[in-house]
Protein backbone atom coordinates (compact mmCIF):
# COMPACT_ATOMS: atom_id res chain seq x y z
CA UNK A 1 0.00 0.00 0.00
CA UNK A 2 1.44 3.42 -0.93
CA UNK A 3 1.50 6.29 1.55
CA UNK A 4 -1.21 8.14 -0.41
CA UNK A 5 -3.38 4.98 -0.18
CA UNK A 6 -2.88 4.98 3.59
CA UNK A 7 -3.86 8.65 3.86
CA UNK A 8 -6.98 8.05 1.76
CA UNK A 9 -7.91 5.12 3.97
CA UNK A 10 -7.48 7.29 7.09
CA UNK A 11 -9.65 9.99 5.50
CA UNK A 12 -12.28 7.69 4.03
CA UNK A 13 -15.01 8.80 6.46
CA UNK A 14 -14.38 12.44 5.47
CA UNK A 15 -14.63 11.56 1.77
CA UNK A 16 -17.91 9.74 2.38
CA UNK A 17 -19.26 12.72 4.35
CA UNK A 18 -18.34 15.04 1.46
CA UNK A 19 -20.08 12.83 -1.11
CA UNK A 20 -23.21 12.70 1.04
CA UNK A 21 -23.27 16.47 1.65
CA UNK A 22 -26.44 18.18 0.29
CA UNK A 23 -24.33 20.78 -1.56
CA UNK A 24 -22.67 17.96 -3.49
CA UNK A 25 -25.84 15.95 -4.12
CA UNK A 26 -27.92 18.99 -5.16
CA UNK A 27 -25.17 20.38 -7.41
CA UNK A 28 -25.02 16.97 -9.12
CA UNK A 29 -28.78 17.04 -9.67
CA UNK A 30 -28.74 20.66 -10.86
CA UNK A 31 -31.15 21.67 -8.08
CA UNK A 32 -28.68 23.51 -5.84
CA UNK A 33 -29.98 26.89 -4.74
CA UNK A 34 -28.31 29.70 -6.72
CA UNK A 35 -27.45 31.57 -3.50
CA UNK A 36 -25.42 28.60 -2.22
CA UNK A 37 -23.53 28.33 -5.52
CA UNK A 38 -22.93 32.06 -5.57
CA UNK A 39 -21.55 31.88 -2.02
CA UNK A 40 -19.27 29.00 -3.06
CA UNK A 41 -17.96 30.88 -6.13
CA UNK A 42 -17.19 34.09 -4.28
CA UNK A 43 -15.52 32.37 -1.31
CA UNK A 44 -13.71 29.89 -3.55
CA UNK A 45 -12.28 32.77 -5.58
CA UNK A 46 -10.64 34.08 -2.41
CA UNK A 47 -9.60 30.53 -1.49
CA UNK A 48 -7.96 29.94 -4.89
CA UNK A 49 -5.73 32.98 -4.59
CA UNK A 50 -4.20 31.52 -1.42
CA UNK A 51 -4.18 28.05 -2.94
CA UNK A 52 -2.06 29.43 -5.80
CA UNK A 53 0.13 31.13 -3.16
CA UNK A 54 0.65 27.73 -1.52
CA UNK A 55 1.86 26.20 -4.80
CA UNK A 56 4.16 29.18 -5.37
CA UNK A 57 5.75 28.87 -1.93
CA UNK A 58 5.99 25.10 -2.31
CA UNK A 59 7.77 25.72 -5.64
CA UNK A 60 10.28 27.98 -3.95
CA UNK A 61 10.97 25.25 -1.35
CA UNK A 62 11.36 22.42 -3.89
CA UNK A 63 14.83 20.89 -4.02
CA UNK A 64 14.90 19.95 -7.71
CA UNK A 65 14.22 21.83 -10.92
CA UNK A 66 11.47 19.51 -12.22
CA UNK A 67 9.40 19.79 -9.01
CA UNK A 68 9.91 23.56 -8.87
CA UNK A 69 8.83 23.93 -12.49
CA UNK A 70 5.75 21.81 -11.94
CA UNK A 71 4.58 23.52 -8.74
CA UNK A 72 5.00 27.00 -10.21
CA UNK A 73 3.17 25.83 -13.33
CA UNK A 74 0.22 24.68 -11.21
CA UNK A 75 0.14 28.07 -9.44
CA UNK A 76 -0.12 29.71 -12.86
CA UNK A 77 -2.82 27.25 -14.00
CA UNK A 78 -4.93 28.05 -10.93
CA UNK A 79 -4.63 31.82 -11.42
CA UNK A 80 -5.27 31.60 -15.12
CA UNK A 81 -7.49 28.62 -15.90
CA UNK A 82 -9.33 27.61 -12.73
CA UNK A 83 -10.01 31.18 -11.61
CA UNK A 84 -11.20 31.99 -15.14
CA UNK A 85 -13.97 29.46 -14.70
CA UNK A 86 -14.93 31.21 -11.46
CA UNK A 87 -14.89 34.58 -13.22
CA UNK A 88 -17.22 33.13 -15.87
CA UNK A 89 -19.55 31.63 -13.27
CA UNK A 90 -19.56 34.92 -11.36
CA UNK A 91 -20.39 36.89 -14.52
CA UNK A 92 -23.46 34.65 -14.99
CA UNK A 93 -24.60 35.80 -11.56
CA UNK A 94 -23.90 39.49 -12.26
CA UNK A 95 -20.77 39.53 -10.07
CA UNK A 96 -17.88 41.54 -11.51
CA UNK A 97 -14.19 40.75 -11.13
CA UNK A 98 -13.83 43.75 -8.82
CA UNK A 99 -16.67 42.40 -6.66
CA UNK A 100 -15.00 38.99 -6.56
CA UNK A 101 -11.70 40.47 -5.47
CA UNK A 102 -13.26 42.49 -2.66
CA UNK A 103 -15.45 39.77 -1.12
CA UNK A 104 -14.80 39.35 2.60
CA UNK A 105 -13.77 35.82 3.58
CA UNK A 106 -16.21 34.12 5.96
CA UNK A 107 -14.88 32.14 8.99
CA UNK A 108 -14.45 28.77 7.25
CA UNK A 109 -12.61 30.35 4.32
CA UNK A 110 -10.38 32.26 6.75
CA UNK A 111 -9.65 29.04 8.69
CA UNK A 112 -8.85 27.02 5.57
CA UNK A 113 -6.71 29.59 3.78
CA UNK A 114 -4.85 30.51 6.99
CA UNK A 115 -4.09 26.83 7.55
CA UNK A 116 -2.77 26.40 3.99
CA UNK A 117 -0.70 29.57 3.96
CA UNK A 118 0.72 28.83 7.42
CA UNK A 119 1.64 25.31 6.29
CA UNK A 120 3.25 26.80 3.19
CA UNK A 121 5.45 29.19 5.18
CA UNK A 122 6.19 27.06 8.24
CA UNK A 123 5.82 23.46 7.02
CA UNK A 124 8.23 21.19 5.24
CA UNK A 125 7.73 20.27 1.58
CA UNK A 126 6.29 16.92 2.80
CA UNK A 127 3.64 18.62 4.96
CA UNK A 128 2.77 20.99 2.11
CA UNK A 129 2.30 18.02 -0.25
CA UNK A 130 -0.02 16.34 2.28
CA UNK A 131 -2.02 19.55 2.86
CA UNK A 132 -2.53 19.95 -0.91
CA UNK A 133 -3.61 16.38 -1.53
CA UNK A 134 -7.27 16.65 -0.33
CA UNK A 135 -7.76 19.82 -2.42
CA UNK A 136 -6.90 17.88 -5.57
CA UNK A 137 -7.95 14.28 -4.89
CA UNK A 138 -11.04 15.41 -2.96
CA UNK A 139 -12.34 17.59 -5.79
CA UNK A 140 -11.66 14.88 -8.37
CA UNK A 141 -13.39 12.16 -6.33
CA UNK A 142 -16.33 14.37 -5.38
CA UNK A 143 -16.75 15.57 -8.98
CA UNK A 144 -16.63 11.98 -10.27
CA UNK A 145 -19.32 11.14 -7.74
CA UNK A 146 -21.36 14.11 -9.00
CA UNK A 147 -20.92 12.95 -12.60
CA UNK A 148 -22.21 9.50 -11.63
CA UNK A 149 -25.24 11.04 -9.88
CA UNK A 150 -26.04 13.62 -12.59
CA UNK A 151 -28.89 12.89 -14.93
CA UNK A 152 -28.19 14.95 -18.08
CA UNK A 153 -26.81 18.46 -18.49
CA UNK A 154 -27.75 21.45 -16.32
CA UNK A 155 -26.37 24.83 -15.24
CA UNK A 156 -23.73 23.26 -12.98
CA UNK A 157 -22.38 20.84 -15.61
CA UNK A 158 -19.32 23.09 -16.29
CA UNK A 159 -18.30 22.61 -12.64
CA UNK A 160 -18.44 18.81 -13.00
CA UNK A 161 -16.65 18.96 -16.36
CA UNK A 162 -13.86 21.14 -15.00
CA UNK A 163 -13.06 18.88 -12.04
CA UNK A 164 -13.31 15.62 -14.02
CA UNK A 165 -11.30 16.98 -16.98
CA UNK A 166 -8.18 15.23 -18.25
CA UNK A 167 -6.04 18.22 -17.12
CA UNK A 168 -7.40 18.05 -13.59
CA UNK A 169 -6.92 14.26 -13.48
CA UNK A 170 -3.30 14.65 -14.57
CA UNK A 171 -2.67 17.40 -12.01
CA UNK A 172 -4.18 15.18 -9.29
CA UNK A 173 -2.12 12.17 -10.36
CA UNK A 174 1.02 14.29 -10.16
CA UNK A 175 0.03 15.50 -6.68
CA UNK A 176 -0.48 11.90 -5.55
CA UNK A 177 2.97 10.88 -6.83
CA UNK A 178 4.41 13.92 -5.06
CA UNK A 179 2.81 12.75 -1.77
CA UNK A 180 4.16 9.21 -2.27
CA UNK A 181 7.61 10.52 -3.13
CA UNK A 182 7.66 12.70 0.02
CA UNK A 183 6.34 9.76 2.06
CA UNK A 184 9.25 7.62 0.87
CA UNK A 185 11.93 10.26 1.24
CA UNK A 186 10.81 11.53 4.65
CA UNK A 187 9.56 8.57 6.74
CA UNK A 188 10.03 10.62 9.92
CA UNK A 189 7.38 13.05 8.69
CA UNK A 190 4.51 10.61 8.30
CA UNK A 191 2.65 11.78 11.43
CA UNK A 192 2.95 15.45 10.46
CA UNK A 193 1.85 14.63 6.91
CA UNK A 194 -1.17 12.67 8.17
CA UNK A 195 -2.18 15.57 10.43
CA UNK A 196 -1.89 18.10 7.58
CA UNK A 197 -3.84 15.80 5.25
CA UNK A 198 -6.69 15.23 7.72
CA UNK A 199 -6.94 18.93 8.62
CA UNK A 200 -7.25 19.89 4.95
CA UNK A 201 -9.78 17.12 4.34
CA UNK A 202 -11.96 18.25 7.25
CA UNK A 203 -11.77 21.83 6.02
CA UNK A 204 -12.82 20.65 2.55
CA UNK A 205 -15.95 19.23 4.17
CA UNK A 206 -16.50 22.49 6.05
CA UNK A 207 -16.21 24.44 2.80
CA UNK A 208 -19.26 22.66 1.30
CA UNK A 209 -21.10 23.23 4.57
CA UNK A 210 -20.12 26.91 4.57
CA UNK A 211 -21.54 27.41 1.07
CA UNK A 212 -24.71 25.42 1.70
CA UNK A 213 -25.56 27.22 4.95
CA UNK A 214 -24.55 30.63 3.51
CA UNK A 215 -22.16 31.08 6.42
CA UNK A 216 -21.49 34.69 7.43
CA UNK A 217 -19.89 36.46 10.38
CA UNK A 218 -22.42 36.87 13.22
CA UNK A 219 -20.97 40.30 13.95
CA UNK A 220 -20.06 42.58 11.05
C1 LIG B 1 -12.12 24.59 -1.36
C2 LIG B 1 -11.54 24.07 -2.65
N1 LIG B 1 -10.73 22.97 -2.59
C3 LIG B 1 -10.21 22.49 -3.77
C4 LIG B 1 -10.44 23.09 -4.98
C5 LIG B 1 -9.86 22.54 -6.23
N2 LIG B 1 -8.78 23.31 -6.70
C6 LIG B 1 -11.24 24.22 -4.96
N3 LIG B 1 -11.54 24.90 -6.08
N4 LIG B 1 -11.81 24.72 -3.78
UniProtKB/TrEMBL annotation:
Superkingdom of origin organism:
Archaea
Thiaminase-2/PQQC domain location is 13-213
Record InterPro entries: Haem_Oase-like_multi-hlx, TenA_E, Thiaminase-2/PQQC, Thiaminase_II, Thiamine_Salvage_TenA
Q: Name one GO molecular function term.
A: thiaminase activity
Q: Name one GO cellular component term.
A: cytosol
The Gene Ontology biological process annotation of the record reads: thiamine metabolic process
Gene3D superfamilies according to UniProt: Heme oxygenase-like
Could you tell me which NCBIfam families the record lists for this protein? Answer: salvage_TenA
Q: What is this protein called?
A: Thiaminase II
Question: What gene does this protein come from?
Answer: tenA
Amino acid sequence: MTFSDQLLEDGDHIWEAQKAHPFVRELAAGTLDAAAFRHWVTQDYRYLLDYARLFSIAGSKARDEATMTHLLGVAHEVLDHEMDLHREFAADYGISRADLESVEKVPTCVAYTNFLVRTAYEGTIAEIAAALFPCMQGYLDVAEHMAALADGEHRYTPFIDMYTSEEFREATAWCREFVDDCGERFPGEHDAMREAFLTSAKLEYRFWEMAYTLEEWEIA
